[in-house]
Amino acid sequence: MFAGFLLAAVVPGAFGRRGLVFAIAYVVVQAGRCLFLVLVIRGEKRRREARRLFWFGVSAVPWLAGGVVHGWVRGVLWAVAVAVDYAAIRLGWPTPGLGRRRLPEYAESGEFLAERHREFFIITLGEPILVTGFAIDRSGFGAGHVAAAALALATTALLWRMYIYRAGQVLGAAVAVPTDPLRVAIPAVYGHPIMVAGVVTISVGDELAIARPDGLIQPAWIAVILGGPALFLAGRSIFEYAVFSRVSWERIAGIAVLGAIVPAIMLATPLQATLAATVILVGVAIADTIYLRRHPGEPPSLPSTRPL
Fold it and tell me: Model-level pTM greater than 0.85?
């Protein structure tokens, strides 16, 4: 818990002077947890944690090396470390002498996996809420600032609704349905960081719009204000495919519209750009609602309908 506290505290300086502290804290959290479990548990669960410990030990090398170097080299090394962490999940943590993770372990922990993902996402939604509060406090309560803050909170509510209905509700059951739970668990694991990246990017755009709602928008701001919702919709599409073996057309359409309005947004204000992004998300949410009413209680897809 203390290492996690340090990890959160040094995030703003992770690509600056605090890089090594960030890397050490991350490695301690991941490898330290597995090491503790290897020491105190027995049987197949111990083998599982030993496999995870091996792979966290592999990724610890680029994590720690990235903390020592600076600039773009750190980014490259940390990207390699993240790739190792996620590739290990996809491969089932194959380890010399220990094999790889057995598929039934995913089915047994389906509801646990779903609950952890839901909690993770709900905590992430605290970011735009906190940012909105801090930004409006610094900027004052002028009409433009208040309007931007209202749009930020409305967007946060939309993100929650689009996440939870309905894939977020049935993820646990979806993991338990197929004979190969990896087909659900792995895309779900991959989709969540993309959604989280979208939420964090949206919170940055909210802060910019609240601070300066008027005046011509800067090009970099467009990438944040429109790119955040696009990232979220992309991650949500991966998540939806994991649960239902389909991707709703409205999410793809939402991403396409966000890209199509970029030329027009270059002539808009930050507040207008935020409004446009929110309206697009509202459209996606409405389309979701219509689909749910036409297909109430849609179950997770069966293995026979899920392509490799």
Answer: no
